[in-house]
């Protein structure tokens, strides 16, 4: 199920590790908005703990005891592809819920001066898309635009394959950083309204390219959500408990381990040189 990755995409951590790190990071905010950041963190924690949503295609095979080899292969294949797809779809939904909580928090920082037409939209999701324009490129991860463009390309293929339509906000052109959350808003709506097909078996019902396109979209969309939540919190919330964060990642223990893991020769060298440890 692994797709070929380019040099830039290979730099990204595994999606469940990235979600875990962000959940930890988000849990370290304090102050009067702590309740809101805690809700974001809890959804991310759930997304990071997700291992597998098992789908068995045998459930609806009434005479499973007598199935021939090709049918058994078909059912196993269906289960395999659906399990992979539904696992990532579930992670995407949990991450979208974390994003919903982020919208509520970010609405507090909205100012119509960020809007290209000086307007104040009603929906917290649209407010957050507009607010994203306040984030300097230096606060975004390296290759952010590559990750965004990859998602946009995948969505274009989806639109072509399924004769679908995406109604983007009309004031951000393709490739603009605010298109990241706008694409997520539209994708989430498509999933919520059941527009995106989910009953897929790449070997039989649809081509591998179509299956892979949908699978890559949800994975890349989840990644973009994580990046956007991190950037928004970094920019607009200030009460980050750094000491608690170091405690959470067991930083002191890590430092001790570094010393412990040193080779005998390194210890001896430090001892001989009298270097304080
Ligand atoms: Zn790439």
Summary of the model, kept short:
The protein is mostly helical and 277 residues long. Helix content is 60%, strand content 0%. The chain has one domain.
Beta-strand residue percentage: under 5%
Helix residue percentage: 55-70%
Provide the domain count. Answer: 1
Give the ligands present. zinc ion
N-to-C CA distance: 47 Å
H/E element string? HHHHHHHHHHH
How would you sum up the global shape?
A: globular
Describe the largest sheet. none
Strands, count: 0
Query: What oligomeric state do these chains adopt?
Result: single chain
Task: Give a topology summary.
Blueprint lengths: L6 H4 L4 H12 L7 H16 L19 H38 L17 H8 L12 H19 L16 H14 L15 H29 L5 H7 L2 H10 L3 H10 L4
The site of zinc ion (ZN) has 5 residues, from helix 1 and helix 6.
Question: Descriptors for this entry?
Answer:
277 residues, mainly alpha, 11 helices, disordered C terminus, binds zinc ion
Structure description:
This protein is an all-alpha fold and 277 residues long. It has one domain (11-240). The chain is 60% helix and 0% strand. The chain has eleven helices and no strands. It has helices at residues 7-10, 15-26, 34-49, 69-106, 124-131, 144-162, 179-192, 208-236, 242-248, 251-260, 264-273. The longest helix has 38 residues, at 69-106. The radius of gyration is 23 Å and the shape is globular. Residues 271-277 have low confidence and may be disordered. Bound molecules: zinc ion. Zinc ion (ZN) is lined by residues 6, 8-9, 146, 150.
């Amino acid at each position: 199920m692994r797709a070929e990755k380019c040099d830039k995409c290979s730099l990204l951590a595994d999606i469940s590790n990235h979600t875990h790190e962000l959940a930890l990071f988000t849990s370290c905010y304090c102050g009067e908005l702590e309740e809101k950041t805690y809700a974001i963190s809890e959804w991310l924690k759930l997304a990071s703990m997700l291992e597998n949503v098992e789908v068995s295609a045998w459930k609806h095979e009434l005479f499973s005891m007598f199935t021939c080899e090709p049918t058994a292969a078909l059912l196993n294949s269906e289960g395999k592809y659906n399990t992979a797809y539904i696992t990532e779809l579930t992670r995407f939904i949990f991450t979208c819920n974390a994003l919903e909580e982020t919208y509520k928090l970010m609405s507090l920082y909205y100012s119509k001066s960020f809007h290209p037409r000086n307007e104040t939209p009603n929906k917290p999701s649209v407010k957050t898309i507009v607010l994203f324009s306040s984030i300097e490129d230096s606060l975004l991860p390296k290759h952010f635009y590559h990750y965004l463009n990859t998602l946009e390309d995948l969505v274009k293929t989806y639109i072509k394959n399924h004769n679908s339509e995406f109604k983007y906000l009309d004031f951000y052109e393709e490739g603009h950083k605010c298109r990241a959350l706008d694409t997520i808003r539209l994708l989430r709506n498509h999933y919520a309204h059941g527009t995106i097909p989910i009953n897929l078996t790449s070997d039989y019902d649809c081509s591998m390219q179509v299956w892979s396109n949908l699978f890559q979209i949800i994975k890349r969309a989840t990644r973009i959500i994580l990046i956007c939540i991190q950037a928004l919190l970094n920019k607009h919330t200030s009460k980050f408990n750094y000491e608690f964060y170091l405690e959470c990642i067991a930083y002191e223990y890590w430092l001790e381990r570094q010393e412990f893991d040193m080779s005998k020769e390194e210890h001896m060298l430090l001892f001989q040189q009298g270097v304080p440890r």
